[in-house]
Amino acid sequence: MFPQARPTTWQPEAVEVARTTVDDAVAVLSGLRITALTGAGVSTDSGIPDYRGPDSPPRSPMTYQQFVGDEEFRRHYWARNHVGWQHVNRTAPNAGHRALVRLEERDILAGIITQNVDLLHEDAGSRNVIDLHGRYDRVICLSCARVISRAHLAERLDALNPGFLESVGDVADIEIAPDADAVIESTAHFRPAPCEFCGGMLKPEIVYFGENVPRERVERAFALVDSADALLVAGSSLTVMSGLRFVRHAADEGKPVVIVNRGITRGDKYATVKIDSGVTPVLEDLTRRL
To answer: What are the positions of the active site (predicted)?
Structure first.
């Protein structure tokens, strides 16, 4: 349901950053208007796994080409997704999400570009959010472009697959992968649903590997970076270019870049301040002190 980590040849390599504390971040960001770029690390305290944290297992991403070109891949995906999406649908924003809301209410935060599709920023009350990779609660037909809710599709999948959810057990007892895909093995008997309007192929309205983020969405994100004085990266390893490009752009424009993330990121060499820490306590501290 969530886009998994996009394939990359980048390998983590430590880069020394001189400024590494919350005090440093406060000194750099005080008096500035900020745009935030958020990744999976913002949502880990809500119970959604991250992609590349120090303790995260390796993942094998499904590509757009596999999804549209292989019926078995699609069946396997939708079966696991039908279990896993419930987990994300039950999650709630955490204190880190709420800290960003308070910064926006005080006009310190211009807005958020998020690589997540969990909608937790919106649920927390953030108003200016660009969902860079789409959102988990909608499904699109690749033939007629009709968009339906994921909840409506769940009803149709339940009808097509009576007893399936009961057969795999309580979602609380199943490992949920970082893309909210449930780790279950027996999916050969699952029946995916076609578009109810034209019979076409349904796909979550998210950006898959092998797809590009829509151009207008990228342009709005660059404009949001340009509208602020600094960029705050929270909970992203910046491994893929879809997020890293905004860090590069801010640095090229001479704007301070503050990165808060557990572990090495691909953007560390552009960072004015790099705080190697969990996201939630740092965002709360910044909100109190800015």
So the answer is: 133
Choose, from 76, 82, 133, 189, the residue flagged as catalytic.
133
Domain coverage including residue 62: 22-289
- Cα-based torsion angle of the residue sequence 11, 246, 36, 18 in order, rounded to the nearest 10 degrees: 60
pLDDT digits 0-9 by tens, 170-211: 544 344 444 444 445 567 788 999 999 999 999 999 998 888
Is 133 marked active-site?
A: yes
Domain assignment present for residue 147? The answer is yes
Instruction: Count up the domains in the chain and report the number.
Output: 1
User: Number of helices (H) and strands (E), helices first, in the chain?
Assistant: 10, 9
Q: Which residues are annotated as a binding site for NAD(+)?
A: 39-59, 115-118, 235-237, 261-263, 279
CATH number for the domain harbouring residue 233 = 3.40.50.1220
What residue numbers does the annotated binding site for Zn(2+) cover? Answer: 141, 144, 195, 198
Say if residues 53 and 44 touch (Cβ distance below 8 Å).
yes
- Is residue 147 helix, strand or coil? strand
Q: Please name which of 184, 172, 158 lies closest in space to residue 77, comparing C-alpha atoms.
A: 184
Instruction: Specify the pTM.
Output: 0.88
